[in-house]
Design goal:
6-stranded mixed sheet; 19 helices; alpha/beta; rod-shaped; GTP binding; Rossmann fold; 2 domains; 71% helix; G domain-containing protein; 514 residues; 6 strands; GTP-bd; P-loop_NTPase
Length: 514
């Protein structure tokens, strides 16, 4: 069988596979180019010899049908193309014919891979045959000498063969052909008439007796050698480099990309949780660090302004800390991984924006808590049986809470009352109880500040990370769906790759590349 046709068919299947895939269309022109090369480079077999040597009869024998005109009068004035097992089979005008068509045969010889030089046994003494044969050998053409025997008797065939070999070893050395070259020259005796008759009558033994099977075996062997040593192997190397390696390497690339996406999502989720835990601890430490300042501020006449400034300082420090943490995350994403550069990132708050928002919302939170905290504080002081608060009614407590201002004002007012007690020299057990109550209320207020500020930090962290995580998860899901289709494509492509490897390479080379 023609060694190029199966490879051409395999490329056709790959072409269909690529056409179905919407992302690999850029490889289709390569497939078409290789198919054209295979068609152009299919080995051609040309029949050559004297005009009446039996070339057209041999064509009919190989094709298995009467397709070429036979006769003593030269009938082939141009090159006729037939096909034997899918391979072009060329019937050319004979040499030494009465009609000057020999130049047509000479032109075709330059494009022929194998020459079947047909010599009739009655022409073995024609010196021009050996001159033509020596030219073919000098030009490194693959040549089979087909000795068309007019007798089927074994003794006659043996005689004809011996006569031809004598002439070959006599004539060719005079024309520069070495004995070793002659020894390698296949000489195949064949009774073409008997072989055609055996085909028509379907007589396998007669076909073997004619010498046809030996010719067919030699042709098959030449085709195998031609397949292994010709350009088909180099063509397959180009297929590996330009088609299979780029496409099949994408499988590992796809898996790597999927792993990177998962790692990216894990990093964002873990960083988000870590920042929330760290943020809560950071806020607690900031508030604790300023607790003494808050207590000292109550001793001042402008305690409300001082406490407000402390709260603003804590908010600013927390915002700056969060912005630093977000900047670190940005650096990791920017320099540690470029896979997700195409993700649209939500705009991040600047440090000043964070500070302003946190201060505003902290102030609102404190204002919302004022009345409750003031009422609780005054009720506690009344229960402590302090003289100043002993006679307070529920209505008076409510009014004090309503008009007492922010919770910080309540602390300041209580502290002033406490200071009044001290200045009157009434520092007794009740005064110490009042101080204890103040300290407890200060602790509660600190906790409220910590909770409110932590909630704001958590909200900012969610706003920074959640859109990123959502976008990355969506991209991963889309990529997974595409990767599933791609894996099926690569599996089929791998199968055709293996098929082409076996068709184009020697078994040892195919095993090595597997």
């Amino acid at each position: 069988m023609n060694p190029y046709q199966p490879a051409c068919d395999a490329l056709g299947h790959i072409q269909t596979l690529l056409a179905k895939s919407k992302v690999h269309a850029q490889y289709l022109p390569l497939i078409s180019e290789w198919q054209d090369q295979l068609v152009r480079q299919m080995p051609t077999v040309m029949l050559y010899g004297n005009y009446n040597a039996g070339k057209s009869s041999l064509i009919n024998l190989l094709v298995g049908d009467t397709v070429a005109t036979e006769g003593e009068i030269p009938t082939t004035a141009r090159v006729h193309t037939y096909h034997w097992q899918g391979m072009p089979l060329l019937d050319t005008p004979g040499i030494n014919a009465p009609m000057a068509h020999e130049h047509i045969s000479q032109q075709q010889l330059a494009k022929t891979d194998l020459v079947l030089f047909v010599i009739r046994n009655s022409d073995v003494d024609d010196a021009d045959i050996y001159r033509q044969l020596s030219r073919l050998i000098a030009n490194n053409k693959s040549v089979f000498v087909v000795l068309n025997c007019e007798s089927s008797k074994p003794e006659d065939i043996s005689l004809f063969h011996r006569q031809l070999m004598d002439h070959l070893f006599t004539e060719l050395p005079q024309m520069g052909v070495s004995d070793s070259q002659i020894e390698l020259l296949p000489v195949l005796p064949l009774n073409i008439r008997t072989a055609i008759l055996a085909q028509q009558q379907q007589q396998p033994e007669l076909l073997k007796y004619s010498g046809y099977l030996s010719l067919a075996a030699e042709l098959a062997h030449w085709l195998e050698v031609h397949k292994q040593h010709h350009w088909l192997g180099s063509l397959y190397t180009r297929m590996e480099q330009q088609l299979f390696e780029p496409l099949l390497s994408q499988q590992q690339t796809g898996n790597d990309a999927l792993f990177t996406m998962s790692a990216h999502i894990d990093y964002l989720s873990q960083r988000k949780a870590l920042l929330k835990r760290s943020g809560a601890a950071k806020v607690g430490s900031l508030v604790a660090a300023r607790r003494v300042d808050m207590h000292s501020a109550l001793e001042q006449s402008e305690s409300l302004a001082l406490l407000s400034q402390i709260q603003a300082d804590i908010s600013e420090q927390a915002a700056q800390w969060l912005q630093q943490q977000l900047d670190l995350v940005e650096q990791v994403l920017l320099y540690g991984d470029s896979t997700f550069a195409s993700i649209t990132e939500p705009k991040q708050n600047t440090s000043n924006e964070l500070i302003n928002q946190m201060q505003l919302q902290m102030g609102n939170c404190l204002k919302r808590a004022d009345k409750k905290h003031i009422s609780a504080l005054l009720s506690t002081l009344k229960k402590a049986d302090l003289p100043l608060f002993r006679q307070l009614s529920a209505k008076q407590i409510g009014q004090a809470a309503k008009y007492g201002g922010p919770a910080l004002q309540a602390l300041s007012a209580v502290w002033n009352l406490y200071q009044g007690y001290a200045s009157q020299g009434r520092e007794n057990e009740q005064a110490r109880q009042a101080a204890t109550v103040i300290a407890r209320q200060l602790t509660q207020l600190s906790a409220q500040i910590s909770r409110s500020l932590t909630q704001q930090l958590h909200q900012f962290i969610d706003d920074a990370f959640s859109p990123r995580i959502k976008c990355a998860v969506a991209k991963k899901e889309t990529y997974q769906a595409e990767l599933g289709e791609e894996q099926l494509f690569q599996q089929e492509l791998s199968e055709w790759r293996n098929e082409l490897r076996l068709l184009c390479l020697k078994p040892a080379e195919a095993d090595k590349m597997a």
